[in-house]
Write a structure and sequence with these properties.
Blueprint (H helix, E strand, L loop, with lengths): L2 H23 L2 E7 L2 E3 L2 E5 L4 E7 L4 E5 L4 E6 L5 E5 L5 E6 L12 E7 L1
Parallel strand pairs: 1-4, 3-9
Antiparallel strand pairs: 1-2, 4-7, 5-6, 8-9
Length: 117
């Protein structure tokens, strides 16, 4: 019976190591939308390398979408993180506009994504 706690500990350690490897395989970046900006307003990604974007809003409902980067229409809600994985295929600078009308500053609400080799 004394072996059971050891095996439970071992199983938990192996699970944690497995999950840690997955997290390191796809780094994440937090992006916060607010009226009327994204923070940070410019991010850099690498061609062929998956990156998890964790999107949230500090105020208001916003959106993000880019066919060029493979980002589907994504709603960004206050207080909730939405994770999307992006694997850029081509280097360049992409200017993404907020995809949901969010008020007077909406036309100027952009996120610049620089994709480098």
């Amino acid at each position: 019976m004394k072996r059971l706690p050891f095996f439970a500990f071992l199983a938990a350690a192996l699970l944690a190591a497995s999950l840690a490897g997955r997290v390191l395989a796809h780094p994440s970046m937090d992006i916060v939308a607010s009226n009327w900006k994204f923070t940070p307003d410019t991010i850099t990604l690498h061609v062929g390398e998956p990156q998890v974007l964790r999107l949230t809003s500090s105020e208001g409902v916003h959106g993000l979408q880019s066919d060029d980067l493979g980002i589907p229409q994504t709603m960004i809600m206050p207080g909730k993180f939405t994770a999307i994985t992006v694997t850029p295929k081509k280097a360049g600078t992409y200017v993404l506009h907020c995809a949901i009308m969010c008020g007077a500053g909406h036309p100027n609400m952009t996120l610049t994504v620089k994709v480098v080799q």
